[in-house]
Amino acid sequence: MEVNTHETQGARPIKPRSPGVTFDAAMPRYWFGGLKHASLLANGVNLLFPKGERFFVRSVMHYLPQLDDPALRAQVKGFAGQEHRHARAHEDYSKVMEAQGYEVEAFLKVFERIAFEGIERVSPASLRLAVTAATEHFTAIMAEDALSRGYLAAMGSEVGRLLMWHAAEEIEHKAVAFDVLAKVAPGYPLRMAGLALASTLLGGFWLAAVITLARQDAKLPPEPHREPTEEEKQNSPLDIFARGIREYMRPSFHPNDRDNLPLAVEALRSLGLEPA
């Protein structure tokens, strides 16, 4: 992607939308192009989204009264609207996972107890915002990777449509939490503390979710699936994580350094949704 000025995406309005997806419990368990491990990997992060998205909203909205920039205030409200809708849509998909035989409530209770009843409660508001800003960078670059490779559109499933919509809107609002952090609590050490905690929590809980689902999946009735191609094997979330950390550690970093908005616009239009 070409380097972009911060203003190109930063001045755009953020519009909450509904993707119009409907899920069927009879859909294949290995919906990700027939790939077992890719489906479990995507299902694992899906479990984190609803509670995680609401944490992001709480962290950013906490500072809304302190923002005197009308454009940034409007973006914060749009960000909150998009994230709330993401949370509800992923909860709907989690119900399908349960109908397919996965037991997710026990994991979610542990996730909530550690991350939100524990860590969030004892963390200062500025650190919660810094964690949100860093995590939003990770979700944005994962969204860029997914949309640029085109495999979500190619699979033609409702989960693929859900993830395309989510990915597009993550790119749209990728700078909001970062810009709020820069306004209310600027400073490189805090940004790095947020990065360290975000990397640990996202990576740790995602891995735990995937392991939980994989153990349950092994006890469910066998379902046809295929082995990944050599190209598909090279698509590792670890590589995206590593790139995200390197980018975020740059002192001059800003989320809009990468002009990936055209990917979001194209994805929204392909879904019949209107770009901002």
Describe the structure.
With 276 residues, the protein is mostly helical. The protein has a single domain, classed as Ribonucleotide Reductase, subunit A, CATH 1.10.620. Helices cover 68% and strands 0% of the residues. It has twelve helices and no strands. It has helices at residues 7-10, 36-61, 70-99, 105-122, 125-149, 151-155, 158-172, 176-184, 188-217, 230-233, 237-249, 261-270. α5 runs antiparallel to α8 (176-184). The longest helix has 30 residues, at 70-99. The radius of gyration is 18 Å and the shape is globular.
CATH topology label? Ribonucleotide Reductase, subunit A
Q: What structural class do helix, strand and pairing data support? A: mainly alpha
Helix and strand pattern: HHHHHHHHHHHH
Overall morphology:
globular
| CATH architecture call | Orthogonal Bundle
The separation of the N and C termini measures 21 Å
> How many β strands by DSSP?
0
Q: What is the topology?
A:
Elements: H1 7-10, H2 36-61, H3 70-99, H4 105-122, H5 125-149, H6 151-155, H7 158-172, H8 176-184, H9 188-217, H10 230-233, H11 237-249, H12 261-270
Helix pairs in contact: 2-3, 2-4, 2-5, 2-9, 3-7, 3-8, 5-7, 5-8, 5-9, 5-11, 7-12
Short overview:
Helices cover 68% and strands 0% of the residues. The chain is mainly α. Mean pLDDT is 93; it is low at 1-8.
